[in-house]
């Protein structure tokens, strides 16, 4: 039983090991800073925006698809939301204006997800090419509307979301992340949609023969992906106090890195949401730890992330679908004795 559990969760144990090594490394070098409460509160305030975006992209990866337009679409959607909110910020109800602005952004994200799904599932355009094309479209629209400038004028109540603590210790962005995380976990683990999603990602032909409407699944997954990513962008503009055509562009590769690190590969049909959470926290620890070295270029964080990714990819090649091939090694030892 223990061996089966070890095989089943070997990737999770590996990620936990990487997190432990990372914590140990920064504890040895910067222990006086690493374990300050303010540092961990800062991390809890920083990772939710790209953490939510990563959770959205996760659905596309599990489905065996790719979306490169999620950040550009999120920027365009939030620009339109901020333009609306700034134009009505002096109205009677800030809450009403904020809710309408959020609804505008989510509707735009929904339309963008439908377009991506139709291009991929309807016209059979390769996902990378289709979504890169849409990335250029959304970026072009954003720049055309703003001339490349940031859009300001958010209601004060909205900008507080990205900086406010509940009860003095719980960041509001972290609370939003936890809600989105629980919803995503429920969808993947306790719904028919989650079962079909893994089925489509594993073998889309087999899913079709199993009476799964794969076209509708792909379109719905792109919509879900882009809506969740838009929620992350809505958190981001609260911390930035505005929207811009290139906000969050660095998150594109960071989110992909996190998913690959967590074993959610774009091949489809694999990955656990718990591993994604571990990878998000690990990446944030690295980013925060690197910033503690005043003489160290912060871009070294990318170097460390890349090295970690290579290590994980090398180790993952030694894994089967159930983890490390313990049985294979045992069989080899048995044959040697014979």
CATH class category label: Mainly Alpha
- CATH A-level architecture: Orthogonal Bundle
User: What's the total helix number?
Assistant: 15
By secondary-structure content and strand pairing, the structural class works out as: mainly alpha
Backbone CA Rg: 21 Å
Order of helices and strands: HHHHHHHEEHHHHHHHH
* Biggest sheet character: 2 strands, antiparallel
Q: What's the total count of β strands?
A: 2
Quaternary structure state of the chains depicted: single chain
How are strands sequenced across the largest beta sheet? 1-2
Helix content: over 70%
By CATH, the topology is ABC transporter involved in vitamin B12 uptake, BtuC
* Overall pLDDT level: 85
Low-confidence stretches: 320-338
Label the overall shape: globular
Strand fraction equals: under 5%
Q: State the domain count.
A: 1
Calculate the terminal CA-CA distance, rounded to whole Å: 26 Å
Short synopsis of the structure:
By secondary structure, this protein is mostly helical. Helix content is 74%, strand content 1%.
Describe the structure.
The chain is mainly alpha-helical and 338 residues long. It has a single domain (2-321), classed as ABC transporter involved in vitamin B12 uptake, BtuC, CATH 1.10.3470. Helices cover 74% and strands 1% of the residues. A hairpin with a 3-residue loop joins strand 1 (165-166) and strand 2 (170-171). The longest helix is centred in the first third of the chain and has 29 residues, at 94-122. Mean pLDDT is 85; it is low at 320-338.
């Amino acid at each position: 039983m223990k061996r089966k559990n070890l095989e089943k969760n070997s990737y999770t144990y590996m990620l936990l090991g990487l997190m432990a090594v990372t914590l140990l490394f920064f504890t040895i070098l910067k222990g006086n800073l690493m374990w300050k409460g303010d540092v961990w509160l800062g991390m809890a305030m920083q990772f939710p925006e790209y953490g939510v975006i990563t959770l959205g992209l996760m659905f596309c990866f599990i489905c065996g698809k790719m979306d490169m337009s999620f950040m550009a679409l999120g920027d365009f959607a939030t620009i339109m939301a901020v333009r609306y909110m700034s134009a009505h910020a002096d109205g009677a109800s800030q809450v009403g204006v904020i809710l309408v602005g959020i609804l505008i952004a989510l509707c735009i994200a929904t339309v963008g997800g439908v377009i991506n799904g139709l291009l991929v599932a309807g016209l059979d355009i390769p996902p990378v090419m289709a979504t890169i094309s849409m990335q250029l479209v959304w970026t072009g629209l954003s720049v055309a509307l703003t001339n490349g400038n940031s859009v300001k004028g958010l209601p004060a109540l909205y900008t507080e979301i990205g900086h406010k603590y509940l009860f003095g210790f719980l960041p509001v962005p972290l609370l939003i992340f936890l809600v989105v995380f629980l919803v995503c976990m429920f969808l993947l683990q306790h719904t028919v949609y989650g079962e079909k999603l893994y089925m489509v990602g594993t073998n889309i032909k087999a899913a079709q023969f199993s009476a799964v409407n794969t076209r509708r699944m792909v379109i719905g997954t792109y919509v879900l992906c882009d809506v969740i990513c838009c929620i992350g962008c809505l958190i981001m503009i609260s911390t930035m106090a505005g929207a811009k055509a290139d906000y969050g562009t660095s998150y594109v590769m960071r989110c992909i890195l996190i998913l690959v690190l967590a074993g959610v590969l774009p091949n489809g049909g694999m990955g656990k949401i718990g591993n994604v959470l571990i990878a998000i926290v690990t990446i944030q620890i690295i980013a925060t730890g690197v910033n503690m070295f005043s003489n160290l270029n912060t871009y070294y964080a990318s170097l460390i992330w890349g090295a970690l990714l290579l290590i994980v990819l090398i180790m993952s090649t030694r894994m089967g679908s159930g983890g490390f091939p313990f049985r294979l090694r045992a069989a080899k030892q048995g044959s040697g004795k014979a």
